[in-house]
Design goal:
Four Helix Bundle (Hemerythrin (Met), subunit A), alpha+beta, 10 helices
Length: 466
């Protein structure tokens, strides 16, 4: 089992899991990058919003201050005061937003906060307070120019900060595009690798598991059908190889056992036939001849009996007739054990003798060589004898047909009647014994006997000695 299917399946599954994990890792990394870039994009938007609000506050302070200086109307101080109140919080927010972006942006935000605070503390607030006390004492032109210079400096810093944010936003978009491309490439590569590995694994399963198992299943069906010579080509992997070897070993063992069983059955049948012939010879040469001698002696005594003893002569005649009948019965019994005509004349004359003795008329159609193997002749004789005996006992038939042909080294026998039918091979010891005899010769026996349609017994026997 070294390097078996379990290990290979685990390796293939592990590779598939690794490819899928790599694909998911790439996707998760891309998602994380996109999420981080989105956070930076939202922060940049907030930076732009806060920077624009701060810049507008600076502009509002400068325009409100200038309008108040030029006109002296306190209405111009309303936007100045709103911008002055919002500036500290907005500048702190801007500094917080750029705190983790880059040192340059932190420096710009700090400079803007400091410059704006200085603008308010050192210039705008003192100027407005002085104009409130005595507007004529304030040099409006000089104050306006100074305010414009300070505001322009702050706005230029705003421009640098916003330009830097635009640059970083462009860089983030480029990184996002690269991350998206990597994610797509990773997903495509992972999908392609997974599909390829699945296809390879499916092909491996089909060639190394499915097809061998199907061949083994086909072999099992052939074994179940009686083909014990079926084998499957070995050469599988791991457990499949063990399965193939196990089935081949099982088939070989079954075939050897069947051959041994057939050989044993053949030996038993042959021994039984030899014993039948011996008994038949013993009866013919022994007791039959003794009975014949006794009958002849009785007839001689009967002939020498004086005429004045008719009663004694009649007794002798009755005894001689009884011995003759016993001789006839013994002759019939010896034919059932093993017919002498089969050994002397062969299958054709033996079947003709069976037909003559049958109480049911028999039509013969026999075309066989002069002699066949002894085992085949004996089996064929007893097949026909048993079939005709069953016809007489059970079929209530008016006629029977016996056909024997030799074709392609096989003897084909058929015994048919027009009786009541309903016979089965499994019923009756005679047909069971015939089936065993036929199977011992590697032949086949079949009975077709539908009720009311008569009975047909067919058999095929090899014509060569086993």
């Amino acid at each position: 089992m070294k390097g078996g299917l379990t290990r290979r399946v685990l390796v293939a599954s592990g590779l598939l899991a690794v490819i899928i994990a790599i694909g998911f890792a790439v996707l998760l990394t891309s998602v994380a990058v996109d999420s981080r870039l989105q956070r930076h994009a939202r922060r940049s938007e907030e930076v732009l919003v806060v920077a624009n609000r701060l810049e507008r506050s600076i502009v509002d302070m400068e325009t409100g201050q200038r309008g108040f200086l030029l006109t002296g109307s306190a209405d111009f101080l309303q936007p100045w005061q709103s911008a002055r109140a919002a500036f500290p919080a907005d500048s702190a927010t801007l500094r917080r937003l750029v705190a983790n972006v880059s040192p340059q942006q932190v420096a710009r935000a700090r400079w803007i906060e400091q410059a704006g605070t200085s603008y308010l503390r050192d210039y705008s607030i003192p100027l407005v307070e002085a104009a409130r006390r005595d507007r004529a004492a304030v040099n409006t032109l000089a104050a306006t120019e100074e305010g414009k210079r300070r505001v322009d400096a702050i706005r230029s810093q705003f421009d640098r900060l916003l330009a830097a944010e635009d640059t970083m936003a462009a860089d983030r978009q480029r990184l996002a595009a690269v991350a998206d491309s990597r994610a797509v490439a990773g997903a495509v590569a992972g999908l392609a690798g997974s599909v390829a590995l699945i296809a390879l694994f499916a092909g491996y399963l089909a060639t190394r598991i499915v097809q061998p198992v199907r061949r083994v299943a086909g072999m099992a069906c052939r074994l179940a059908g009686g083909d014990l010579g079926a084998r499957v080509q070995e050469g599988g992997t791991g457990e499949i190889a063990a399965l193939q070897h196990g089935f081949n070993s099982m088939a070989s063992a079954l075939q050897d056992n069947r051959q041994e069983l057939v050989a044993s059955r053949t030996r038993i049948v042959a021994a039984a036939d030899r014993e039948r012939r011996r008994i038949e010879r013993d009866l013919h040469d022994g007791i039959q001849q003794r009975l014949v001698s006794l009958v002849l002696e009785l007839r001689a005594v009967e002939a020498d009996t004086p005429p004045e003893a008719p009663q004694f002569r009649e007794q002798l005649a009755d005894i001689a007739q009884g011995l003759g009948e016993a001789q006839d019965e013994l002759r019939e019994l010896s034919r059932g054990i093993h017919p002498a005509i089969l050994s002397e004349g062969g299958l054709g004359p033996a079947l003709k003798a069976l037909a003559r003795r049958s109480p049911v008329p028999v039509e013969l159609d026999v075309e066989v060589p002069d002699r066949l193997s002894e085992q085949v002749e004996v089996a064929a004789y007893f097949i026909v004898s048993e079939a005709l005996a069953n016809t007489v006992k059970h079929a209530r038939a008016s006629v029977a047909w016996v056909k024997a042909r030799v074709e392609d080294t096989r003897l084909h026998l058929s015994v048919r009647d027009d009786g009541v039918g309903g016979a089965q091979v499994g019923h009756g010891s005679g047909l069971i014994g015939l089936r065993d005899r036929v199977q011992a010769l590697d032949g086949t026996l079949a009975v077709i006997s539908s009720p009311g349609d008569g009975t047909t017994l067919t058999a095929e026997l090899p014509t060569v000695d086993r």
